[in-house]
Write a structure and sequence with these properties.
The chain is of the alpha+beta class and about 325 residues long. About 50% of the residues lie in helices and about 20% in strands. It is elongated, with a radius of gyration of 28 Å.
Amino acid sequence: MVMFGVTLGELLSDMAGGQIPSGLLGELLLLKLPEVLNTILPLGVFIGVVWGLGRIYRDQEMAVMRASGFRWQMMLRPLFHLLLPIAAAVFINGVLLAPMATQNAHMRLEKAFRTAAEWGLQAGQFHVLQNGDLILYVEAVEKDGRTLRNIFIQQRQQDGREQVWTSERGYYWLDTTSGERYLTLENGQITGSGEKTLDFSIVRFSRNDLRLPQPKEKNQPPAVEARSSQNLFFSTEAEDMAEIQWRISPAITIVVLGLLAIPLSHSAPKEGRGAKIFSGFFAYLVYANVLHMSRSWIVSGSIPAVLGLWWVHAVALVIAVFWLRRQGRMVGRA
């Protein structure tokens, strides 16, 4: 719920700034689902295993199993029956479904920018964009969803001047080279004035192209996220190698965290499970943040792409195995 709330908040913020069309909110939220699942499934599985094994310790079942000669190695088989199918599903989701969804979202946005109806323009309503610096009003939208009638635009520029655009007719178009979107106005005029000056101007035109608000760079996903995994596998670019490793990492994380959950779930007979859940969540935060930092280091060239994210998984795996073997003395090895 938190992850979906964050995703919805980002989409609503972009919509308020005029960076995405309101008509695509539901579809874009659905297309974000594979990306969100890659984040929440490793954590969900990890906390679930810690919670389940903690219940076995609390109900004294583990004490009976240890007394019967149960070793920690025997726990791997049932644990992998849970982890491996989920890891395989996450792998398919990260390598295939998530890039396809991202690419589809970009295509839907590009198509929507050509269509006034999907971009969120409603006839007879004022639309406030760019935090009030751009106000757009359209009297009517024709059936093709692209042609506008009787357009009113108020634009505030950075130097404090204001312009009022009026036009009898207009339509959208997208510059495929630069990615910028424009509103072409026909048979209109521009009235300009300044807040602290007395100058006043009127310019009439037969055609004029107004550039619409562009998405902010920090909110615009990199193009590499929409590329197919097949192309990234054979690329030698650092950014591409970091991206493909990032897509595979959630599946590996599930297996490594599952092993780490065995010693982490160990508790005394009367010890509560809340502390273990907190410890597990903290371990996941450290693991995930180091992966994030390593991804940035690969792109910036601070670490070689061959080393990549693999060293993070290797270190976490060594810690999990060492902890398991050390705790094996308490889990029935004797």
